[in-house]
Amino acid sequence: MRLLTFQAKRFWWRTFSKTLDQVEDVQVEDEVLDAVVAFYQVEARDVERRDSVFRQTLKHLKWLANKRDLRNIVLHSFAHLGGENAAPEFARALTDDLAGRLRETGYRVWVTPFGYFNEWELSVYGESLAKVWKEI
Fold first, then answer.
1. Residue 9's closest CA among 29, 30, 28, 32?
2. Which regions of the chain are under pLDDT 50?
3. What element of type H or E holds 97?
4. Could you give the number of structural domains in the chain?
5. Are 95 and 57 in contact (CB under 8 A)?
6. Closest CA to 7 of 134, 131, 135, 133
7. Could you tell me the pTM of the whole model?
8. In this predicted structure, what is the pLDDT of residue 83?
9. Distance between CA atoms of 136 and 121, rounded to whole angstroms?
């Protein structure tokens, strides 16, 4: 798993084009204020270590959110962070599980449409901690 995370003042997105034939057709436009925005890539090697990757990713997202008392989290699949991608079915299932666990612990979670390119606008706080890269 590779994560590029931001403590964002604002994140706006809109579906642009479908990249996976097997996903449902959707048109989405949404915006979240004061959130951790996680651009993530699920890698092929994550399949073998799924439980550890899940636990470490969850811990990282909560840690970063708690540094600024943020209760909103956006998960944005971004398969361009390097490495070999996991199968889309695995990546989507892991995403759904992460979103579910975060919601169970009191966070409000948005997931950008999986299998789509999106256009987006991102406004990030200035501190160094507002922009964190992590490889799990």
1. 32
2. none
3. helix 88-104
4. 1
5. no
6. 131
7. 0.92
8. 74
9. 26
Three-state DSSP at 115 gives coil
Query: From CA 117, how far away is CA 100, in angstroms rounded?
Result: 23
At 23 the pLDDT is 80
Q: Residue 2 corresponds to which tokens in the numbers above?
A: 């590779």
Any domain includes 130: no
Residue-range definition of the domain harbouring residue 92: 2-123
CB 28 within 8 A of CB 69: no
Cβ contact 73:108 at 8 Å: yes
- Three-state secondary-structure class, residue 129: helix
Give the torsion through C-alpha atoms of 115, 121, 125, 130, to 10 deg.
Answer: 20
Tokens 């966070």 locate to 107
In a domain, 129, yes or no: no
d(CA 70, CA 93): 25
Domain of 25, CATH number, reads 3.50.80.10
pLDDT at 81: 67
Domain contains 100: yes
Which residue in this structure is represented by tokens 């909103």?
Answer: 72
Sign of the dihedral through C-alpha 135, 52, 19, 122: negative
Q: Considering the domain boundaries, does residue 36 fall inside one?
A: yes
